[in-house]
Input
Amino acid sequence: MLKWLPPYRVELELYGEELGDYIRGPGYGWLISERFAEAFRAEGLTGLEGFHPVEVLRVRCMRKRPRQPLTVPRYYVVWPCFGRGAVDPVLNRVRIRKTPTCTECRSAGIDAIHGFVLEPGTWGGEDIFRPRGMQGDIVVSERFKNFVEQHGLTNMVLTPTEQFVWDPSNLGPAPLPTA
Output
């Protein structure tokens, strides 16, 4: 996947009443509002890189909305870091095609996820990161969850890792390891 390079310009689609504090961007990028960025920095949270200003060229309203002026916040592009935290190869409920051969990335093609946990001792304390073994997903700390709630940040759904489900082929959970 190619990295998004400057100039950072976007056209946004609005499906609700107002734009959120978080918008999934191209590739691994996120767009975060100025309010989110300032609070993140002020509280000393970790795991986001970038913080480059984004120019919003246009906002397309995808549903009819009242004729009130739309407030477009200033956005920044950020990228969640690749963390040292690794998905536990024994305790996770992830269906994989074959056993990973690379101990660093721990990735071998995921078919379904029915909850996962991190291997003890691998997490480096980042508040937001992409874990080894599931680089396409984002894990956040309890501190980040509290930060989102405290600041009322919008357009974000946080799911405990043990309850996270992604199973497009309805394969069901991976079998539990046998003793």
Q: What stands out?
A: The radius of gyration is 18 Å. The chain has two helices and eleven strands.
